[in-house]
Design goal:
Layout: H1 2-28, E1 35-38, E2 41-44, H2 49-53, E3 59-64, H3 69-85, E4 90-95, H4 100-103, E5 113-117, E6 134-137, E7 147-151, H5 156-165
Parallel strand pairs: 2-4, 3-4
Antiparallel strand pairs: 1-2, 3-5, 5-7, 6-7
């Protein structure tokens, strides 16, 4: 009788550990960021990408760092662009040094790097623009682009061309 109770308790403990372990595994593999307003542009710190991609607007997520010289030139361009087109586009900035955990889950090889998504949440396809620095990433054994990345900074003119191509009404 004691042996049967012991087996039952052991099975229950194993099931509980399995459920807790699965939840921990699932959470550790999600990309989490929170949204906090910072001077007209949002800084991401812990919500998730679905929050951004579910807004029906094109999305640009910029990975930056305080020590990055090109970032110091590019960030004001992003801020001005956001102010002009904030009703039509979402522009987010993430400090790569503060979010190494997130950066390690993405194909980021240099700072600044931007991720681009169309208003339906799909990866933006810049292939017809001819702007240097864009790369598309696909899952293994797939021709479909799952993530569009740009390394380096843009000039204001280049950023406007990209926004126009993404469907933003640039005057």
């Amino acid at each position: 009788m004691i042996k049967k109770n012991w087996i039952g308790v052991s099975i229950l403990v194993c099931l509980l550990l399995g459920v807790v372990g699965y939840k921990y595994y699932k959470q550790s593999n999600e990309i989490k960021i929170s949204v906090k307003e910072a001077g007209g542009i949002y800084e991401l710190k812990g919500d998730d990408f679905s929050y951004l991609l579910g807004k029906g607007k094109p999305v640009i997520i910029d990975f930056t760092a305080s020590w990055c010289i090109p970032c110091k030139t590019f960030n004001p361009i992003l801020e001005q662009t956001y102010e002009k087109y904030k009703d039509q586009v979402i522009i987010k900035i993430i400090d790569a040094d503060e979010h190494k955990d997130l950066v390690s889950k993405l194909p980021i090889r240099a700072i600044p790097t931007q991720l681009f998504f169309n208003k339906d949440g799909s990866p933006y396809d810049p292939s017809k623009l001819g702007i240097i620095g864009f790369r598309g990433y696909s899952k293994e054994n797939s021709d479909k682009i799952d993530l569009t990345v740009h390394e380096g900074a843009f000039t204001e003119e280049e950023l406007i061309v990209v926004l126009k191509d993404m469907g933003v009404d640039v005057e």
